[in-house]
Structure prediction request, 759 residues.
Amino acid sequence: MAQQRAVPGIKKYTAPAGGWGALKATAKAIREQMETGEAAVTLFRTNKPDGFDCPGCAWPDKEHTSTFQFCENGAKAVTWEATKKRVSPEFFQGHTVSDLWNWTDYELENAGRLTHPLVYDHASDRYQAISWEAAFQRIGEGLRAHHPNTVEFYTSGRASNEAAFLYQIFAREYGTNNFPDCSNMCHEATSVGLPQSIGLGKGTVSLDDFDHCDLIISIGHNPGTNHPRMMGTLHECAKRGVPIIVFNPMRERALERFADPQNPIEMSTFGYENIASSYYQVKVGGDAAALKGVMKALLALDRAPGRNAPVIDHAFIAEHTRGFETLAADLDATEWADIEAASGLSRTALEAVASAYAQSNATIIPYGMGVTQHSRGTDNVQQIANLLLMRGNFGKPGAGICPLRGHSNVQGDRTVGITEKPAADMLQRIEETFGFKPPVEHGHDAVAAMQAIIAGRSKVLICLGGNLAVALPDPEQSFPAMCGLDLVVHVATKLNRSHLLIGKDAIILPCLGRTEHDIQAAGPQMVTVEDSMSMVHSSRGKLPPVSAHLRSEPAIIAGMAIATLPQSKVAWAELVEDYDRIRDKIEAVFPDFRDFNQRIRVPGGFRLPLPATERVWKTPSGKAEFIVFKGLNEDPATADGAVLRLTTIRSHDQYNTTIYGLDDRYRGVFGRRDVIFVHKDDLAAHNIQHGDAIDIETALPSGSPRRLAGFIAIAHNIARGSIAAYYPEANGLVPLDYHDPQSGTPSYKSVPVRIMRHA
Prediction:
């Protein structure tokens, strides 16, 4: 076999995930962003009962606190926020917005923390300092000049429960239900699909369930990068012999082998634990077909002559479910040859998974955005629920469904009311609690919000954190449309590209970070967050604010509300004086938060009710529902054998749109992001060599093709027929209207494309 030619920045990385590589990367992040002594004290307060919640992922905390509770990417998130670098008004004196547009996303955020409220000055093309009072007055006047339904209120998952709750009360009293939210772009398929299946839009497992499971089937996620603290849990499961079956198009290092930085034996001997017992490289867009194959094989095992005990839990199905006969008929009518073609996996492989599943008394299925960010993401989620229901894997120890949420409080924001489709009972309790009548008509999700901005129907955008323009697909439409807005307001800690898309009026309001003290009239305050497993716990910042001009998110929201709604029925100033008062209002609107202020002061917090864990199904029928996936293809079928399926991925030096550095060491990429990962046989079939510059073009049946030009093709261990590129660089290949119709989630993880040599 001929040796591949050398490509700058591409080299093999053979070490396991975690281990010394993680410690080295953590030390590098500390050295570049913080003073070493301050960083050490800060990091050891991360995810502790008396400390602050990591601003990164939403994986739950362990009950004991004898070890450090942060991972490499958590350390990056903390040091990135607590950096010694500053973006002050003097910074903008030396940089126009036009100049900053040419900076990379990494360079923009790496400039440091915002220190003052800012307003854009068109004459000088610079942001300039503005007082809080003047900023609020300007925002209030701008909002009062527009119809409420022409305003979009975007929420990032890093907002606390208290901030998110006040934000939705502000917008609803103002008069709109337009709530584009970061969950619209990640796990909305979970929030929509699971209530139809099991009556609950959240996961059903706890961290303790991983101590009791017999099998883990891991689908469509890369925890080593996106949920790194999960690796400790998977490591423990692997050590006690739990089979971990992985479905993923790419061979991800953390799912192959992992060295626990807290394990002195592994660290001293350079040892590691194998994580996946079986690894199946499903085609991009082949998840539903693979799941149907496993379910079809499970049916065959149950029907096999001479079997002593049933494989399928017929008693559970009879008592707790509906629709099984319809599902079984659909599986019977689906041909194995079609399943193999659509999934890229053999019948033998899928039958092996079914056999392992049949032998497990308690199975957990974690899944990520590799399942949800598809044009049929909601259907994908429901097939996972179907598989679990077939063996009664709900409502018992060690079993259940485990959606892996991204941001640390994306689930909590939803729980406290950030939704464009508010339920009638929630609106009634808002009216009873605050004395105003909120609007009832449904508002915009993220895609609908951007479509309204592009069409000129929406005129104002308020962003509570995030980097909306970069996070959404289709920048060719989205970027210029945002520049046509009448008013854009960003509540932020750091500069990002969305801040450079200047409307007629643009304001940046700098807020406290998760790591910083929050002092209000009643004294030091804490906020709360909800993790992926419905545990609500407190977070208390420990560092002094980077600037005396920062305000907390609740205080900023209250300031905007007071300036916008002079006749408001909400006691905004009193609520912000003491966040206990906000939590009392949350409890009044959401009864699941009973005794909120008492329970949140218990170390570790409390778990919200999850009826499905008690085999109570809050569906219209009162039963869990088997829901059929019609056909096998998640994307438009094509007879063109040259069409590949693109998935977007995050690098290891990245969290969502935040890019901490330019390396992706587990995949062997260093100092660059302009790469496309392709199977070597697909490269050969297209007469392309490793290291060639190529173009990627969409191959959808409608709309003008979108093209990404001049990226470097890298031969990689990825499923045949599949390619991968970094998010958000590849977002231009995802049309805004190519999304799951049920959840509105863009299809970042499966887009039909063609590749060709770059001219």
Q: What stands out?
A: Residues 57 and 320 are 34 Å apart (CA to CA).
